[in-house]
C-alpha cells in the first residue's frame, strides 16, 4: 500500500488570526459538533428516577448508562466500544483523511468556540492583527479581559460537566458552595480548567500538530484513493494574480490567500497535503466563495484523492478499508451481545482465615465465611443464602441486605450435624428475585 507523504511546511509559524467563513462545510461542522456539545453538557445534569443518565461512579463501583446499571466487571464492554471507536477512526481516516479532527474532535470543537468568542469580542481577524501591532489601548485591554473571562467561563463549565460524569454533579456543586470539596477534586477541576483554557484558547493548532499523534501517523492510514482536502494544481496554476503570466495561460487561482486566512492551523493548502491539516473544509468554503464571484467552477480546492487529481478512476472498495469496517462491525456485535449478558447480581465470599472449622457442643461442625453482595438493575432488597447438599444449613439470618454500590461484608456460618469427611465439596446458592448464583467451595471438618 502506497504511503502518502506529508509536508511539515506551515504558512504562519507565529500567532494565527483565523478569519471566520460561512459555507457548506462549516454548516456541516456545526451540524455535527453542536449536538455533541449539547449532549456533553446535558448528560451530566439529566436524571432518570433520581439517577444520572450517564455516570462512572468510582465511589459506588458502578456505571450508569441511560438507566442501565453496570458493575465494574462489565468494563470490558467499554473496552469493546473503544476498539470499535478506534477501528472506526481508522476506517474514516482511510476513507476521507483527518475529517474526525476537523468536524468532531473535542480539541477542534472547543477551539472553534474560543475562536468565535474572540471574533465576537475583539473583532475580525484583520482588526485583531492590527491591534496586536499597536500600543495597548484601554478599550482593547477591556475587550481582551472580557474575552479571557468568557474563555475561563467556558473552561469552568467544561470542567464541572466533565467531572459530573464521575462525581454526582449536584453533590459537587453543593460541596463547592459550602467550601467542602476534597482537595483531590479541587486539583482535578483546576487541571481540567487549565487544560481547556490552554488547549482551546492559547495553543490550538500546536496541539493538533505536536501533541496529537494522529498528525504524524495519518500518512500510514492514507492511500492514493483517500479523499482529503486538496488543491487542484493543474487547474489553479499558474496563479492569475501574477502579471508576468499571459492571460490565456492563467489558472483559476487568483492568489487571494483567503484559503490561508480561514485555516485554523495556518497552512497554505496549495503547497500540498501537510501534517497540520485537519480537513475542516474551511479553505474549500473560502475558495468556493471566490470562484462564485469569478464565475468559475467550484472545487478548485475540494475533497479529492491523489488518483482523482492525477486523472485516474477513484476506487471506493479497498481491502484494508473493508477490513477496518469488518473489525468495527464485529466489535460492535460483541458489545451488543455483551450488554445482554451484563451482571445483575455480584457476590463475593471468602473463608474466615482465623479458624478453619469449629465443633459445637452439640456435635455440629461449622465453617465461617464473609459474604459481600451487590445488585444491579434489580429491585430486590435482600439476598437469600442456601447451601447444597441439603444436610448442610445456614445458621443465623439466611437473608443478606443488598446494596447498590458500597457493599460491605456480612458473616455467614455453615454447619452440619451429619458425619463429614475432612474435606467436602459443597455449593452455596445466592438468590435475588429470579437471579441465582452458585458458588462452589470446600467444607472442612476433623478427619
Automatic annotation (TrEMBL):
Residues 241-272 form the 4Fe-4S ferredoxin-type domain. Keywords: 4Fe-4S, Electron transport, Iron, Iron-sulfur, Membrane, Metal-binding, Transmembrane, Transmembrane helix, Transport. The chain crosses the membrane at residues 31-48, 77-97, 149-167, 179-198, 321-339. The keyword Transport applies. The keyword Heme does not apply. This is Cytochrome c oxidase accessory protein CcoG.
Amino acid at each position: 500500500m502506497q504511503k502518502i507523504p506529508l509536508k511539515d511546511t506551515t504558512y504562519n509559524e507565529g500567532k494565527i488570526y483565523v478569519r471566520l467563513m460561512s459555507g457548506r462545510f462549516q454548516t456541516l461542522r456545526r451540524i455535527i459538533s453542536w449536538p455533541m456539545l449539547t449532549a456533553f453538557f446535558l448528560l451530566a445534569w439529566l436524571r432518570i428516577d433520581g439517577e444520572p443518565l450517564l455516570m462512572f461512579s468510582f465511589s459506588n463501583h458502578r456505571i450508569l448508562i441511560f438507566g442501565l446499571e453496570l458493575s465494574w466487571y462489565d468494563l470490558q464492554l467499554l473496552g469493546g466500544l473503544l476498539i470499535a471507536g478506534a477501528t472506526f477512526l481508522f476506517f474514516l481516516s482511510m476513507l476521507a483523511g483527518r475529517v474526525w479532527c476537523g468536524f468532531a474532535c473535542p480539541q477542534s470543537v472547543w477551539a472553534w468556540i474560543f475562536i468565535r468568542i474572540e471574533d465576537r469580542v475583539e473583532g475580525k481577524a484583520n482588526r485583531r492583527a492590527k491591534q496586536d501591532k499597536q500600543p495597548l489601548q484601554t478599550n482593547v485591554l477591556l475587550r481582551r479581559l472580557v474575552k479571557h473571562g468568557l474563555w475561563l467561563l467556558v473552561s469552568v463549565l467544561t470542567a464541572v460537566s466533565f467531572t459530573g460524569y464521575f462525581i454526582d454533579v449536584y453533590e459537587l456543586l453543593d460541596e463547592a458552595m459550602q467550601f467542602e470539596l476534597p482537595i483531590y477534586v479541587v486539583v482535578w477541576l483546576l487541571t481540567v480548567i487549565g487544560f481547556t483554557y490552554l488547549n482551546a484558547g492559547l495553543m490550538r493548532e500546536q496541539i493538533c500538530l505536536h501533541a496529537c499523534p494522529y498528525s504524524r501517523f495519518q500518512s500510514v492510514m492514507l492511500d492514493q484513493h483517500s479523499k482529503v482536502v486538496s488543491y487542484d494544481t493543474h487547474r489553479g496554476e499558474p496563479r492569475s494574480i501574477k502579471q508576468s503570466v499571459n492571460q490565456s495561460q492563467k489558472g483559476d487561482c487568483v492568489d487571494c490567500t483567503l484559503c490561508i486566512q480561514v485555516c485554523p492551523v495556518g497552512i497554505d493548502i496549495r503547497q500540498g497535503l501537510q501534517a497540520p491539516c485537519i480537513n475542516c473544509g474551511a479553505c474549500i468554503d473560502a475558495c468556493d466563495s471566490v470562484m462564485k464571484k469569478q464565475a468559475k467552477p467550484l472545487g478548485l480546492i475540494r475533497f479529492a484523492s491523489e488518483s482523482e487529481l492525477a486523472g485516474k478512476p477513484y476506487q471506493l472498495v479497498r481491502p484494508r478499508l473493508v477490513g477496518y469496517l469488518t473489525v468495527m462491525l464485529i466489535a460492535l456485535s460483541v458489545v451488543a451481545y455483551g450488554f445482554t449478558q451484563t451482571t445483575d447480581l455480584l457476590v463475593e465470599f471468602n473463608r474466615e482465615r482465623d479458624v478453619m472449622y469449629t465443633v459445637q457442643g452439640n456435635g455440629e461442625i461449622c465453617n465461617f465465611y464473609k459474604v459481600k453482595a451487590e445488585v444491579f438493575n434489580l429491585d430486590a432488597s435482600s439476598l437469600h443464602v442456601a447451601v447444597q447438599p441439603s444436610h448442610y444449613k445456614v445458621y443465623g439470618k439466611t437473608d443478606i441486605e443488598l446494596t447498590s454500590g458500597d457493599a460491605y461484608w456480612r458473616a455467614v456460618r455453615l454447619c452440619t450435624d451429619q458425619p463429614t469427611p475432612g474435606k467436602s465439596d459443597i455449593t452455596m446458592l445466592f438468590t435475588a428475585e429470579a437471579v441465582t448464583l452458585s458458588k462452589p467451595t470446600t467444607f472442612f471438618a476433623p478427619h
